[in-house]
Amino acid sequence: MTLAETRDLLERLRRGETTVDAVVRALQAAPFADLGFARVDTHRAVRQGFPEVVFGAGKTPEQVAGIAARVFAEHRRVLVTRATLEQARVVRRRFRHAVHHPVARCLTLEQASLPRRPGYIAVLCAGTSDLPVAEEAAVTAEFMGNRVERLFDVGVAGLHRLLGRLDLVLGARVLVVVAGMEGALPSVVAGLVARPVIAVPTSVGYGASFGGVAALLGMLNSCGSGVTVVNIDNGFGAGYAASQINALAAEAAAAAAAAPSAAPPTPQPRRRPSPAR
User: Is residue 234's pLDDT more than 70?
Assistant: First the structure.
Protein backbone atom coordinates (compact mmCIF):
# COMPACT_ATOMS: atom_id res chain seq x y z
CA MET A 1 0.00 0.00 0.00
CA THR A 2 1.34 3.42 -0.97
CA LEU A 3 1.07 6.59 1.08
CA ALA A 4 -1.50 7.96 -1.37
CA GLU A 5 -3.56 4.75 -1.11
CA THR A 6 -3.44 4.93 2.69
CA ARG A 7 -4.70 8.52 2.64
CA ASP A 8 -7.43 7.59 0.17
CA LEU A 9 -8.53 4.68 2.33
CA LEU A 10 -8.79 6.89 5.41
CA GLU A 11 -10.66 9.57 3.45
CA ARG A 12 -13.17 6.94 2.31
CA LEU A 13 -13.62 5.90 5.91
CA ARG A 14 -14.22 9.52 6.93
CA ARG A 15 -16.87 9.88 4.20
CA GLY A 16 -18.56 6.65 5.27
CA GLU A 17 -17.72 4.83 2.04
CA THR A 18 -15.97 1.95 3.80
CA THR A 19 -16.00 0.30 7.20
CA VAL A 20 -13.57 0.24 10.09
CA ASP A 21 -13.15 -3.53 9.65
CA ALA A 22 -12.21 -3.07 5.98
CA VAL A 23 -9.59 -0.49 6.91
CA VAL A 24 -8.18 -2.75 9.63
CA ARG A 25 -7.92 -5.66 7.16
CA ALA A 26 -6.11 -3.47 4.63
CA LEU A 27 -3.64 -2.21 7.22
CA GLN A 28 -3.06 -5.72 8.56
CA ALA A 29 -1.78 -6.91 5.17
CA ALA A 30 1.81 -8.15 5.33
CA PRO A 31 4.16 -5.15 5.04
CA PHE A 32 6.54 -7.12 2.82
CA ALA A 33 6.45 -9.47 -0.16
CA ASP A 34 8.43 -12.69 0.24
CA LEU A 35 10.15 -13.62 -3.04
CA GLY A 36 12.19 -16.41 -1.50
CA PHE A 37 15.51 -14.70 -2.17
CA ALA A 38 14.30 -11.28 -0.93
CA ARG A 39 11.64 -9.77 1.30
CA VAL A 40 10.53 -6.60 -0.44
CA ASP A 41 9.45 -3.83 1.93
CA THR A 42 6.09 -2.79 0.48
CA HIS A 43 5.40 -0.25 3.26
CA ARG A 44 8.61 1.77 2.78
CA ALA A 45 6.74 4.52 0.92
CA VAL A 46 4.17 4.81 3.72
CA ARG A 47 6.89 5.30 6.34
CA GLN A 48 9.44 7.30 4.35
CA GLY A 49 7.57 8.79 1.40
CA PHE A 50 9.49 6.82 -1.25
CA PRO A 51 9.57 3.12 -2.21
CA GLU A 52 12.39 0.72 -1.43
CA VAL A 53 15.42 1.25 -3.67
CA VAL A 54 17.16 -1.81 -5.13
CA PHE A 55 20.92 -2.08 -4.57
CA GLY A 56 22.14 -4.05 -7.58
CA ALA A 57 25.65 -4.99 -6.40
CA GLY A 58 25.96 -8.65 -5.46
CA LYS A 59 22.61 -9.65 -6.96
CA THR A 60 22.03 -11.73 -10.09
CA PRO A 61 20.27 -10.06 -13.03
CA GLU A 62 17.22 -12.25 -12.41
CA GLN A 63 17.09 -11.25 -8.74
CA VAL A 64 17.28 -7.56 -9.62
CA ALA A 65 14.53 -7.98 -12.22
CA GLY A 66 12.32 -9.88 -9.76
CA ILE A 67 12.69 -7.32 -6.97
CA ALA A 68 12.24 -4.41 -9.38
CA ALA A 69 9.08 -5.99 -10.79
CA ARG A 70 7.56 -6.38 -7.32
CA VAL A 71 8.39 -2.80 -6.27
CA PHE A 72 7.02 -1.49 -9.57
CA ALA A 73 3.81 -3.49 -9.21
CA GLU A 74 3.27 -1.93 -5.80
CA HIS A 75 4.36 1.67 -6.41
CA ARG A 76 4.57 2.17 -10.20
CA ARG A 77 8.17 3.33 -9.87
CA VAL A 78 11.50 1.76 -8.93
CA LEU A 79 15.13 2.87 -8.74
CA VAL A 80 18.01 0.40 -9.04
CA THR A 81 21.50 1.57 -8.05
CA ARG A 82 24.88 0.02 -8.90
CA ALA A 83 23.28 -1.81 -11.81
CA THR A 84 25.55 -3.76 -14.15
CA LEU A 85 25.09 -3.82 -17.91
CA GLU A 86 23.76 -7.39 -17.75
CA GLN A 87 21.29 -6.47 -15.01
CA ALA A 88 20.11 -3.57 -17.16
CA ARG A 89 19.62 -5.86 -20.15
CA VAL A 90 17.52 -8.34 -18.20
CA VAL A 91 15.35 -5.65 -16.62
CA ARG A 92 14.84 -3.89 -19.97
CA ARG A 93 13.79 -7.15 -21.63
CA ARG A 94 11.00 -7.29 -19.05
CA PHE A 95 10.24 -3.56 -18.98
CA ARG A 96 10.91 -1.86 -22.33
CA HIS A 97 10.45 1.62 -20.88
CA ALA A 98 13.09 1.16 -18.16
CA VAL A 99 15.92 3.68 -18.53
CA HIS A 100 19.56 2.71 -18.03
CA HIS A 101 21.88 5.49 -16.85
CA PRO A 102 25.30 3.97 -17.62
CA VAL A 103 27.48 6.69 -16.06
CA ALA A 104 25.42 6.70 -12.85
CA ARG A 105 25.13 2.88 -12.96
CA CYS A 106 21.40 3.26 -12.25
CA LEU A 107 18.15 1.96 -13.67
CA THR A 108 14.91 3.92 -13.40
CA LEU A 109 11.41 2.69 -14.15
CA GLU A 110 8.27 4.73 -13.61
CA GLN A 111 4.73 4.93 -14.93
CA ALA A 112 4.77 8.74 -14.71
CA SER A 113 7.37 11.22 -13.49
CA LEU A 114 6.87 12.86 -10.11
CA PRO A 115 6.07 16.58 -10.23
CA ARG A 116 9.15 18.71 -9.72
CA ARG A 117 9.46 20.55 -6.42
CA PRO A 118 10.26 24.27 -6.54
CA GLY A 119 13.89 25.22 -6.18
CA TYR A 120 16.79 23.03 -7.21
CA ILE A 121 19.53 20.80 -5.90
CA ALA A 122 23.05 21.53 -7.17
CA VAL A 123 25.37 18.56 -7.72
CA LEU A 124 29.04 19.52 -8.04
CA CYS A 125 32.09 17.35 -8.54
CA ALA A 126 35.78 18.13 -8.44
CA GLY A 127 36.91 16.12 -11.46
CA THR A 128 35.62 14.08 -14.38
CA SER A 129 36.77 10.91 -12.60
CA ASP A 130 34.15 11.65 -9.92
CA LEU A 131 31.29 11.62 -12.48
CA PRO A 132 29.88 8.14 -11.68
CA VAL A 133 29.29 9.10 -8.04
CA ALA A 134 28.02 12.59 -8.90
CA GLU A 135 25.65 11.23 -11.53
CA GLU A 136 24.33 8.64 -9.07
CA ALA A 137 23.43 11.51 -6.72
CA ALA A 138 21.88 13.55 -9.55
CA VAL A 139 19.79 10.69 -10.98
CA THR A 140 18.55 9.76 -7.50
CA ALA A 141 17.49 13.32 -6.68
CA GLU A 142 15.81 13.80 -10.07
CA PHE A 143 13.93 10.53 -9.81
CA MET A 144 12.61 11.59 -6.40
CA GLY A 145 10.98 14.69 -7.87
CA ASN A 146 13.65 17.39 -7.76
CA ARG A 147 15.16 19.70 -10.31
CA VAL A 148 18.91 19.13 -10.41
CA GLU A 149 21.58 21.45 -11.75
CA ARG A 150 24.95 19.87 -12.51
CA LEU A 151 28.32 21.59 -12.25
CA PHE A 152 31.18 19.20 -12.97
CA ASP A 153 34.99 19.42 -13.05
CA VAL A 154 35.26 22.46 -10.77
CA GLY A 155 37.93 21.22 -8.35
CA VAL A 156 40.20 23.43 -6.27
CA ALA A 157 43.13 23.06 -8.67
CA GLY A 158 41.25 25.54 -10.89
CA LEU A 159 39.04 27.47 -8.51
CA HIS A 160 38.07 30.03 -11.18
CA ARG A 161 35.91 27.32 -12.78
CA LEU A 162 33.74 27.24 -9.68
CA LEU A 163 33.66 31.00 -9.16
CA GLY A 164 32.60 31.45 -12.78
CA ARG A 165 29.27 29.75 -11.93
CA LEU A 166 28.72 31.26 -8.52
CA ASP A 167 25.15 32.22 -9.48
CA LEU A 168 24.20 28.55 -9.83
CA VAL A 169 25.91 27.66 -6.55
CA LEU A 170 24.26 30.44 -4.54
CA GLY A 171 20.81 29.73 -5.94
CA ALA A 172 20.60 26.10 -4.80
CA ARG A 173 18.49 25.02 -1.82
CA VAL A 174 20.94 22.24 -1.00
CA LEU A 175 24.26 21.21 -2.55
CA VAL A 176 25.85 17.79 -3.06
CA VAL A 177 29.61 18.19 -3.46
CA VAL A 178 31.62 15.20 -4.69
CA ALA A 179 35.43 14.98 -4.56
CA GLY A 180 38.25 12.49 -4.34
CA MET A 181 41.99 12.92 -3.65
CA GLU A 182 42.28 15.40 -0.72
CA GLY A 183 38.53 16.15 -0.72
CA ALA A 184 38.85 19.92 -0.38
CA LEU A 185 35.97 21.10 -2.58
CA PRO A 186 33.11 20.79 -0.01
CA SER A 187 34.96 23.07 2.43
CA VAL A 188 35.36 25.72 -0.27
CA VAL A 189 31.68 25.52 -1.26
CA ALA A 190 30.52 25.61 2.37
CA GLY A 191 32.41 28.86 2.84
CA LEU A 192 30.43 30.46 0.00
CA VAL A 193 26.82 29.49 0.74
CA ALA A 194 24.22 29.63 3.51
CA ARG A 195 22.75 26.27 2.52
CA PRO A 196 23.26 22.64 3.58
CA VAL A 197 26.27 21.02 1.92
CA ILE A 198 26.38 17.22 1.62
CA ALA A 199 29.94 16.08 0.99
CA VAL A 200 30.66 12.84 -0.84
CA PRO A 201 34.21 11.45 -0.76
CA THR A 202 35.16 9.24 -3.70
CA SER A 203 37.73 6.52 -4.05
CA VAL A 204 39.50 8.49 -6.81
CA GLY A 205 43.17 9.22 -6.15
CA TYR A 206 46.69 7.86 -5.97
CA GLY A 207 48.13 5.49 -3.36
CA ALA A 208 47.99 7.66 -0.25
CA SER A 209 44.33 8.46 -0.90
CA PHE A 210 43.69 4.97 0.55
CA GLY A 211 40.65 4.33 -1.62
CA GLY A 212 38.85 7.48 -0.51
CA VAL A 213 39.79 7.44 3.18
CA ALA A 214 41.92 10.58 2.78
CA ALA A 215 39.00 12.48 1.22
CA LEU A 216 36.62 11.13 3.86
CA LEU A 217 38.84 12.28 6.74
CA GLY A 218 39.40 15.65 5.11
CA MET A 219 35.65 16.21 4.77
CA LEU A 220 34.94 15.04 8.31
CA ASN A 221 37.50 17.60 9.50
CA SER A 222 36.15 20.39 7.31
CA CYS A 223 36.43 23.92 8.68
CA GLY A 224 33.34 24.86 6.63
CA SER A 225 30.19 25.09 8.74
CA GLY A 226 27.16 23.06 7.74
CA VAL A 227 29.01 20.23 5.99
CA THR A 228 27.47 16.76 6.34
CA VAL A 229 29.47 13.77 5.06
CA VAL A 230 28.22 10.47 3.65
CA ASN A 231 30.18 7.29 3.01
CA ILE A 232 32.83 6.86 0.32
CA ASP A 233 31.29 6.73 -3.20
CA ASN A 234 27.77 6.95 -1.76
CA GLY A 235 26.18 9.21 -4.35
CA PHE A 236 22.80 7.59 -3.78
CA GLY A 237 22.80 8.43 -0.08
CA ALA A 238 23.71 12.05 -0.81
CA GLY A 239 21.03 12.44 -3.48
CA TYR A 240 18.39 10.88 -1.23
CA ALA A 241 19.29 13.13 1.72
CA ALA A 242 19.31 16.20 -0.53
CA SER A 243 15.83 15.28 -1.75
CA GLN A 244 14.54 15.00 1.80
CA ILE A 245 15.96 18.43 2.66
CA ASN A 246 14.44 19.97 -0.46
CA ALA A 247 11.09 18.33 0.32
CA LEU A 248 11.08 19.92 3.78
CA ALA A 249 11.89 23.31 2.24
CA ALA A 250 9.08 22.91 -0.29
CA GLU A 251 6.59 21.93 2.43
CA ALA A 252 7.58 24.93 4.56
CA ALA A 253 7.23 27.28 1.59
CA ALA A 254 3.82 25.86 0.70
CA ALA A 255 2.61 26.15 4.31
CA ALA A 256 3.81 29.74 4.52
CA ALA A 257 2.04 30.62 1.26
CA ALA A 258 -1.20 29.02 2.44
CA ALA A 259 -1.19 30.68 5.87
CA PRO A 260 -3.41 33.76 6.16
CA SER A 261 -1.45 36.95 6.43
CA ALA A 262 -1.36 38.41 9.91
CA ALA A 263 -3.64 41.41 10.37
CA PRO A 264 -1.86 44.62 11.27
CA PRO A 265 -2.15 45.55 14.94
CA THR A 266 -5.05 47.86 15.79
CA PRO A 267 -3.68 51.30 16.66
CA GLN A 268 -4.40 52.27 20.22
CA PRO A 269 -5.58 55.83 20.95
CA ARG A 270 -2.92 57.96 22.50
CA ARG A 271 -3.73 59.05 26.01
CA ARG A 272 -3.09 62.61 26.94
CA PRO A 273 -1.05 63.08 30.08
CA SER A 274 -3.04 64.40 33.04
CA PRO A 275 -2.34 68.04 33.86
CA ALA A 276 0.03 68.60 36.73
CA ARG A 277 -1.60 69.56 40.01
Answer: yes
